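Deliverable D4.2, example record:
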Amino acid sequence: MMTSLHNSAAAPAGPGVARPLRAGAGSPSGATAQALLGMLCPAFGSAVAHSVLQALGHDLGNPRALTRQEIETAVSAAEISRTAMSGLSFLSRILLLAEGDGAAFHACVAAAGVDPETLSVDTRARIDGAFALEMAAAGSDRRGVDLRAAQPLMQRAIGSVLSRTW
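Output generated by the structure prediction step:
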């Protein structure tokens, strides 16, 4: 999946007019590392953008224009990083789903002082919905949320649902 970024500094003025920046699809060269960071952040998030530029050895203070290949490599690396982060978040979601009734979910419910066996199917569905909102708010689509970081999110979701239920 290619992500389209926009280089508004190089684009003509006007509503909706922008030059796409995609790996392997006519990416403009000549952007500095700082400008590339500005293009990557909206699409991939600050953490991924900074990590990619650092890993590729691009100094944000260097005024040197990056080559087309350097820009395409950075965009590809950001896409790969986002895919990896999504996989990490997906695994955390699967392990904690109320519907899945696994050990990680049971631990979160026990921390709330509730017996998991007392939760109805409807309550579990509402907990899963609240957990999805917590994960989205945590930016799990832009950075990976591992199980350790996801557990407090599930605990918050459980607390939120149970406070409205009981």
